[in-house]
Amino acid sequence: MSETALKKVTYEDLYSIPENAVGEIIDGELVVTPRPSRRHTFASSALDKEIGPPYQFGRGGGPGGWIIIIEPEISLGEDILVPDLAGWKKERFPYSEETNWISVPPDWVCEVLSPGTVRTDRTRKMPIYARHGVSHLWLMDPEAEMIEVFRLESGRWALLGVFAENDRMKAEPFEEIELALNDLWLKP
C-alpha cells in the first residue's frame, strides 16, 4: 500500500487547496472543485435574495425564524461539506463555536448543480445529508433551468416536485412564498 493511501485526510488538508477552488472532505477523500461559474453563482445568489429576506428577516410578511448562509462549511460526522446554500431554524443554529465549520446539520440544503459537481452532489452528498437528518434538499440546475425539491422521509429522499423554466414555485420548507423561477436564471 502506498504512503498516500494510508494518510487520513484531515481538516488541515483543506488549507492546501488553491484559493480559486472549493474543498470538501467526502467519505474520507479530499474533493477539490473549481469555483462555480457565473450562471451557478447568479442562481444561488438570486435564490438567497428571494428566500433570505422573508425567512431570515421576516420581510415582506415572511415568517422569519431562519438563518440562511451561502457556502457554509458543515461538519457531518467525518465529512466536511460546502453546500451552495443552507438554512437552519434559528433555535437549532449554533451561534458560537470554536471551529470554522458548523457542527449542526442544517434543516435545508440547496446544491446548485454544475457539470463538474452533479455526480458528487447526487451520489455522494445526498446520502450524507440523509444520514445526518437534513430535512429538505433542493437540487438547482441553472443549465437546465430546473429545481428538484426533496423531503427526507424515513431516511430516504422523497421527490416532492420538479419545477422548471418560467414556473412559479411554492415548495417546502419555504412554501409561504412563491418563487418566480425565471428570476433565478442568468439571461441577457
From TrEMBL:
Q: Does the keyword Hydrolase apply?
A: yes
Indicate the segments forming the Putative restriction endonuclease domain, all copies: 12-181
Q: Does the keyword Nuclease apply?
A: yes
Q: What GO MF annotations does this protein's record show?
A: endonuclease activity
List the keywords (alphabetical): Endonuclease, Hydrolase, Nuclease
Protein name per its UniProtKB record:
Restriction endonuclease
Q: Which organism is it from?
A: Desulforhabdus amnigena
Lineage of the source organism?
A: Bacteria, Pseudomonadati, Thermodesulfobacteriota, Syntrophobacteria, Syntrophobacterales
